[in-house]
Amino acid sequence: MSNMLLEAKEVHTYYGASHILHGIDFHIRQGEGIALMGRNGMGKSTLIKSMLGIVRPRHGRVLVRGDDFTKAPTYKTAQRGIAYVPEGRGIFPNLSVRENLQMAARAGLDGRREWTFDRVMSTFPRLGERINNGGWQLSGGEQQMLTIGRALMTNPDLLILDEATEGLAPLIAMEIWRIVKEIRKTGIATVIVDKNHGAVTSICDRAMILVKGQVVFDGTSEAVRADPELIQKHLGV
Amino acid sequence: MPAGQGTLMDFASFLIQMLNSLQYGLLLFLVASGLTLVFGIMGIINLAHGSFYMIGAYLAFVLTSATGSLFLAILLGIPLTFIVGAFLEWALFSHLYKREHLEQVLLTYGLILIFEELRSLLVGDEVHGVDIPAIFSASIPLSDVLSYPVYRLVISGVCIVLAVALYFVIQRTRLGMMIRAGNHDRTMVEALGININMIYRVVFALGFALAALAGMLAAPISSVFPNMGSHVLIISFVIVVIGGIGSVWGALIAALVIGFADTFGKVLLPDYAGMVVYLVMAVVLLWRPEGILKKG
């Protein structure tokens, strides 16, 4: 299929001597939503970083839109319409809210500029109130909104959210999920890693579960929701 | 009355020392701004940065001899050093980003030796002078016996213009935002689709060109001599540390402080002049261990 956005094929990744990913296959198509699930330390973030070239797989290949990007620098992957919201947020605290957004602004791969500064402002009204504040002055929820807004400024086709609601108050987390649903409706594909299984499976149509660096489940979100045993076995604490 | 007889000075001498301090501090800022950016953003300790200053001064000498004009020499020298800087970043420094400080120090110390040897082979070991351009060769009389050379005012003026331009680039342009963002988190900058290596190359080349420009501007007043970069290197590191590693504005404040401390130290405490700068550094670091302005 030609609408494949991002693929991992038989990817093995190590941190030093520890073998984190054991031959993972992953793929996401245009417009798809994938809930990437699994307990802590099962390799979810490492898989994302391996596909973005932030860490290098030792074996296997990474494809972006069908092209081999296994050894491509991270910025080239990003330029192909893939935006990343990392764990721990990754805003630039030494830049103002406005600058955080402006520095990322870019047309999408097909030249479209649907996500402009103004649109991000209307999607995240709270950021508008803090537009000239330094990034370091934001609350956790505002930082998360800024990181998502900044990712949207690149007009991506795929948005990867790693632990987007970690450490946020429940109300703020709900606000984030509401906005992510809105973003999904515009046709942007998403990969979401989060501990709130109910929320992610309701936003994403597909779910993948990782255990010790291997895929143990790849199917519909409905199938996960309908199978409490699966959740208990691989995701329960 | 002769200037600075130990304890007291008249107003004209005081004014001269003030202007000298300002001019020296601003010139040091040109050198230190590149050093602090390269250190703060790329994490590289570049001992060869003083050599860039030396290269600039020798370029001023060679190109002024060839073209007959310091203006032309500077006009040619800036793009030339920018290109050499970009080349050095590509060929050598880009391989150092993930290396230890020890390896960086070894390579950049080796570069000092190479640059000095090249200087010796190409230009020789004699001390050379560079003429002040005729239109700036006048002096402004301040009292019956004291006057101030116009050329030093020109240096200060050029440095102020460059400091303002640097401020504009770093605070107001997208390139500046990317540089500041890269100072905090290079991986995130890259994940936004920005080629951070290209930004590093530009910053490094800019740092080279600014240090070389400082050497070119200083050549007529300090003359041109072997190892002239080493003193500038040490004092620039003092400025980077006092100002806060990675902070251009910290470097500006620190360069001015050091300019004043050094100039007035030599006048008021001639016996201890060599120590004054380091005393200032010790006091600042006791007050603010991370420098006047913290990174970022």
TrEMBL record, chain A:
Domain ABC transporter: 6-237
InterPro entries: AAA+_ATPase (IPR003593), ABC_transporter-like_ATP-bd (IPR003439), ABC_transporter-like_CS (IPR017871), BCAA_Transport_ATP-bd_LivF (IPR052156), P-loop_NTPase (IPR027417)
Signal peptide span: none
CDD domains assigned to the protein according to its UniProt record, in alphabetical order: ABC_TM1139_LivF_branched
GO molecular function list: ATP binding; ATP hydrolysis activity; branched-chain amino acid transmembrane transporter activity
GO annotation (BP), single: L-amino acid transport
Top-level taxon in the UniProt lineage: Bacteria
Pfam families: ABC_tran (PF00005)
Entry keyword set: Amino-acid transport, ATP-binding, Cell membrane, Membrane, Nucleotide-binding, Transport
Family designation: Belongs to the ABC transporter superfamily.
Name of the protein described by the UniProt record: ABC transporter ATP-binding protein
Record lineage: Bacteria, Pseudomonadati, Pseudomonadota, Betaproteobacteria, Rhodocyclales
